[in-house]
Amino acid sequence: MRLEIRAISRIKAGPERTLVNDYIARANSVGRPIGFGSVEEREIDNRALSGKAAETAALVDALPPGCLVIALDERGQGFTSRQFASQLERARDDGVRDGVFLIGGADGMDRQTLPAGVKLMSFGAMVWPHKLVRVMVAEQIFRAFSLLAGTPYHRD
């Protein structure tokens, strides 16, 4: 199962870029031996997009058929790290080939533009900067893979 983090805007340089790159590299290292494909990131340039409906449409453009779609939203469902790992494991075991995480811009996402069956996931009731959300998604993917692989990264 391949995973992709799709996000509006770019992270050029700085601590957030370093962390995203590090967690994606770690996830790729731990995930492959347990049946996960690559974890990748796609940044969507929003300079030519006007409003959250256009940004959301760009995020969902060309989603792989039958993929698991998880949109990050403060009104979404909260998960423990173990529950999140179980969701990815279940999708992988059910033969889902792709999973895509959507991170909107400053105004969030247009719910009407999101595809049917999208899961809304939250990192809590607070609103987080999208750069930090990207770091958090990358870290939680790595943590999920680490849990599933039985490594000591996650401590209860």
Q: What attributes characterize this protein structure?
A:
alpha/beta, single chain, 38% helix, Alpha/beta knot, 5 strands, 156 residues
Description:
It is a single chain. The chain has 156 residues and is of the alpha/beta class. It is built from four helices and five strands; from the N terminus they run βαβαβαββα. The chain has helices spanning 15-31, 52-60, 81-93, 130-149; strands at 2-8, 39-44, 68-78, 98-103, 119-122. A five-stranded parallel beta sheet has the order 2-1-4-3-5.
The helicity comes to 25-40%
- Summarize the biggest pleated sheet: 5 strands, parallel
Which strands sit side by side, in order, in the main sheet? 2-1-4-3-5
Annotation field: number of helices: 4
CATH homologous superfamily designation: SPOUT methyltransferase, trefoil knot domain
The H/E string reads EHEHEHEEH
Strand content: 15-25%
Category by helix and strand content: alpha/beta
Q: What's the structural domain tally?
A: 1
How many DSSP E strands?
5
Q: Looking at the structure, what is the overall shape?
A: globular
From the 3D coordinates, which CATH architecture would you assign?
Answer: 3-Layer(aba) Sandwich
Catalytic activity: pseudouridine(1915) in 23S rRNA + S-adenosyl-L-methionine = N(3)-methylpseudouridine(1915) in 23S rRNA + S-adenosyl-L-homocysteine + H(+)
Main location: cytoplasm
Family: Belongs to the RNA methyltransferase RlmH family.
Keywords: Cytoplasm, Methyltransferase, rRNA processing, S-adenosyl-L-methionine, Transferase
